[in-house]
From TrEMBL:
Residues forming coiled coils: none
One GO CC term, this protein: cytosol
Composition skew (Pro residues), residue ranges: 597-606
SUPFAM superfamilies: Actin-like ATPase domain
Origin organism lineage: Bacteria, Bacillati, Actinomycetota, Actinomycetes, Streptosporangiales
Name recorded for this polypeptide: N-methylhydantoinase A
């Protein structure tokens, strides 16, 4: 009897989901342990296993923020950079776009480059864009550079030579020489062989920067799981929603930077609605993504380690990374986001988070600053006794004290007004992320369904959706652990890319598919293995390209490019085109049990606290409590339901899950639908 486990490590909580052979799921949630994330993982996995034999687990899928945090917190290894003679200054010079708070700062200092100038080296060699060797590699110079790097105690080297995507022979020879002197050598022709030297260089640097950290972490995690009896292979979610082995994730760590958010988007896509805005609000951040025709939007470049970039779409707000990733907008607005009054007397919320240590004031773990979670507790949206499935009782008194001391008092307003203002500011911050992935890209969000999940998402979703005219919000089963559940729907996959001009597409695709299949340990022709091909195209003479699905028909390929160009830029343009790059994604379908979402857990028996009943579509609440809704005049007694006991009810109302809480504002209705989803619908305005 096989079981699968999905584990998602977030900034505040670590979530685990256990799926049995019949598709039934068990869930667990515990505080993340930032000093060593494996401590929280083992705690969550042990809890979700219960009485299940650990040896029955045949698959573990993991989403981690380790790579992201290593970049943001500068906790990667020291890296040396080696490039072609004459180009060593590209990385120290870098690029930077001033965000709003920096724009008028007369004392502004740009962020430090990913590699210090003194650790950038160059070697004599030169290859042109067609792969022709213009100057042979000076191997003696490479040896001297390697000896200097080793003398400095640097343990990782990133090598990115000019036009190595066209001819990688010099990079490979450098790797052989440096490999005898330095423990880790990463070359761009193996990481991501695309044109645009700066982006290729930074992607290679980031891979060298976080690779040793990721490798050590995954070895430690595998050992910790084995200690509790789980010997199943560990797989890691990549940024594009695929799954790779732990060994491959260690070698290509840069592809895991958006690991956790990608899993949540898969969960939103699995609801079956064609056009969706995924809305994931956890303890630290809120993330949104557009899903069209059931497929998440994918970007091939994003920026990490910057600020003001809403997840990396804005060039110059971080270090560019060229690897496929779910196209997300992200803001620092989660349940743990700290609310504060700035020197000008304005109320703010986030982006700083209380995290899991010390956490919101109401956790009673030493935190004294008010957070969005404290505000929601004061407003009556949360039940202190049932938070996180009842495993972490909350203190309303501590939340009220924090709001009074840090917000209501300094602002001269009531406690309820201060708490509601925090709630609204969080909604506005999350609305800005939705705006980035829709309105700023010419998409009318009113025609989409919002799928809300995460520990805090369902509390805010209806208010955020209403800002954009979105009248339907879907809250799926297991919404509080949506990312962990989404992990189990990921297939084993990996990507390969190559920039090539005037190449034979058949030969390029065949070589890429063979290399990608080798990464997975399969053959492209094996049963259950699929190969998806696409091409990077542009109008002749333009500098930037768009990715379109491949077809062997030149006319149809040009038509697909024109349609994509119109979708992205809003301009119907015709003209000669050229192909500048080729991409393949090799996928091996993972064996999984049939999903059984109709039973998200045992409902509370009728008549007991927490249970509701629905007879003939008429829903009777489990109980009532006071909650704040300004449309109703402030605090009012509202009905509280469980998901299992819900039929159809008009707001204001509250629906409580084991891992999350759904707030139904006035003007909205909630009903239980198929697969135990709760559908929120706003009345026509």
């Amino acid at each position: 009897m096989s079981h699968a486990i999905g584990v998602d490590v977030g900034g505040t909580f670590t979530d685990a989901v256990l799926s049995g052979p019949d598709g039934r799921m068990s869930v667990a949630k515990c505080l993340s342990t930032h000093d060593d994330p494996t401590d929280g993982i083992v705690t969550a996995v042990t809890a979700v296993l219960g009485r299940t034999d650990p040896s029955a687990v045949t698959r573990v899928v993991h989403a981690t923020t380790l790579a992201t945090n290593a970049v943001l917190e500068r906790r990667g290894v020291r890296v040396a950079y080696v490039t072609t003679l004459g180009f060593r200054s590209a990385i120290p010079l870098g690029r930077y776009a001033r965000v709003e708070e920096d724009r008028y700062d007369l004392r502004f200092d740009p962020p430090a480059p990913p590699v210090a100038a003194e650790d950038c080296f160059e070697v004599p060699e030169r290859v042109n864009s067609r792969g022709e060797v213009l100057r042979p590699l000076d191997e003696a110079a490479v040896v001297r550079v390697g000896e200097e790097i080793a003398r400095r105690g640097v343990t990782a080297v990133a090598v990115c030579l000019l036009h190595s995507y066209a001819n990688p022979s010099h990079e490979r020879r450098i790797a052989e020489i440096l490999g005898a002197l330095v423990p880790t050598v990463v070359i761009s022709s193996e990481v991501w062989p695309e044109l645009r030297e700066y982006e290729r260089a930074t992607t290679t640097i980031m891979s060298a920067y976080v690779g040793p950290v990721m490798a050590g972490y995954l070895r430690r995690l595998t050992a910790r799981l084995a200690a509790v009896g789980i010997t199943a292979p560990v797989h890691v979610m990549d940024s594009a929603g695929g799954v790779m082995s732990a060994e491959l994730a260690a070698r290509r760590a840069v592809t895991t930077i958006e690991s956790g958010p990608a899993a949540g988007v898969l969960a939103a896509a699995a609801t079956g609605y064609p056009d969706v805005i995924s809305f994931d609000m956890g303890g630290t951040t809120a993330k949104t993504c557009v899903i069209r025709d059931g497929t998440p939007e994918i970007t091939h470049e994003f920026h990490v380690g910057g600020k003001g970039s809403f997840g990396g779409r804005r060039a110059g707000t971080g270090v560019p990374v060229k690897t496929p990733a779910v196209d997300l907008a992200e803001v620092g607005a989660g349940g743990g986001s700290v609310a504060w009054v700035d020197p000008a007397g304005a109320l703010r919320a986030g982006p700083r988070s209380a995290g899991s240590e010390p956490g919101p004031a109401c956790y009673g773990l030493g935190g004294e600053e008010p957070t969005v979670t404290d505000a929601n507790l004061v407003l009556g949206y949360l039940d202190p006794a049932s938070f996180a499935g009842g495993t972490m009782p909350l203190s309303r008194a501590l939340a009220e004290k924090a709001v009074d001391r840090h917000l209501a008092g300094p602002l001269g307003v009531s406690r309820a007004e201060a708490a509601h203002a925090v709630h609204e500011i969080a909604n506005a911050s999350m609305g800005s992320a939705v705006h980035v992935v829709t309105v700023q890209r010419g998409i009318d969000p009113a025609g989409f369904v919002m799928v809300a999940f995460g520990g805090a998402g369902p509390m805010h979703a209806a208010r955020v959706a209403s800002r954009f005219g979105i009248s339907t919000v879907v809250v799926p089963a297991y919404c509080g652990v949506g990312s962990a559940a989404g992990l189990l729907s990921g297939d084993l996959s990996t990507d390969r890319v190559l920039s090539a001009l005037d190449a034979d597409p058949g030969q390029v695709f065949a070589a890429l598919a063979t290399a990608a299949a080798r990464d997975l340990g399969v053959s492209p022709d094996s049963p259950g293995v699929s190969v998806t091909r696409s091409a990077d195209m542009r109008f002749t003479g333009q500098a930037h390209d768009l990715t379109v699905p491949w077809t062997d028909s030149p006319t149809e390929l040009a038509g697909r490019f024109s349609a994509r160009y119109l979708q992205v830029y809003g301009i119907a343009q015709e003209g000669p085109t050229e192909i500048v790059g080729y991409r393949v994604r090799v996928t091996q379908a993972a064996a999984r049990a049939p999903r059984s979402p109709a039973t998200p857990g045992p409902p509370a028996p009728a008549g007991l606290p927490g249970a509701g009943t629905a007879d003939g579509g008429v829903t009777r609440p489990a109980r009532r409590r006071s909650a704040y809704f300004p449309e109703a005049g402030g605090y009012v007694e509202v009905p509280v339901f469980t998901r299992a006991g819900l039929g159809e009810v008009a707001g204001p109302a509250i629906v409580e899950d084991a891992e999350s809480t759904i707030v139904v504002p006035p003007g909205w209705t909630a009903r239980l639908a198929e697969a135990m989803s709760v559908i929120l619908t706003e009345a026509a305005r």
